[in-house]
Amino acid sequence: MNESSREAYNAARIKALESLLIEKGIITSETVDQVIDFFEKDMGPFNGAKIVAKAWVDPDFKQRLLEDTPSAIAQMNLPRGMAGAEGEHMKAVENTPDVHNLIVCTLCSCYPWPVLGLPPYWFKDPTFRARAIREPRKVLKEFGLDIPETTEVRVWDTSAQIRWFVIPERPAGTEGWTEEQLATVVTPEAMQGAAKVQVPTSI
């Protein structure tokens, strides 16, 4: 089953389960709408993009973020839920020309939801989880990211005890950009270590 087929299959199963739970009176359609609204507006990769952008322009903040990630994030004016069960054990690592970081969860699909949103299908795939540990360079190359042999690749196993995310390298050509402008080019994949931040030619 390819990814698009799997997505459609899972979406149908979720819809059927949702309908059954509403029919049984376990949840209401309003509850479902509230959860969807929360992930669309409050918890998602737009938060992580703001954090990364601030780290790029504020060296002191970046240092605090690397030393005590939840404390640094708490200083920002971000939506509710950033310090909840999924966010209180977050830890940031920084990509540099000498070190490239990749996050994976070898046990299941633990993920820093407050800053990255919901995990993609490939992050939960058992094959990815196993191969990312054994052969991270090869996996990254399949993602279109060819890491030089001179760059060390570090793989971080995220879990319920600690949820990792990556501060990607700031791309060239963004000197003088505001935090708001920088945040627009930060992607979830870059904060997972599966991609680098690219500057669109139209910007």
TrEMBL record:
Kindly give the Pfam families that the UniProt entry links to this protein: NHase_alpha
Q: Which keywords annotate this record?
A: Lyase, Metal-binding
Reactions catalysed, as given in the entry: an aliphatic primary amide = an aliphatic nitrile + H2O
Cross-referenced InterPro entries, in alphabetical order? CN_Hdrase_a/SCN_Hdrase_g_sf, CN_Hdrtase_a/SCN_Hdrlase_g, CN_Hdrtase_asu/SCN_Hdrlase_gsu, Nitrile_hydratase_asu
EC number, UniProt record: 4.2.1.84
* Protein origin, superkingdom: Bacteria
Task: Identify the stretch annotated as signal peptide in this record.
Answer: none
Query: Does the record's keyword annotation contain Lyase?
Result: yes
Answer yes or no on keyword rRNA-binding: no
Q: Which residues form the Nitrile hydratase alpha/Thiocyanate hydrolase gamma domain?
A: 10-195
User: One MF term from GO for this chain?
Assistant: nitrile hydratase activity
Which protein family is it in?
A: Belongs to the nitrile hydratase subunit alpha family.
Q: Know the name of this protein?
A: nitrile hydratase
Q: Which organism is it from?
A: Gloeocapsopsis crepidinum LEGE 06123
Q: What is the lineage of its organism?
A: Bacteria, Bacillati, Cyanobacteriota, Cyanophyceae, Oscillatoriophycideae
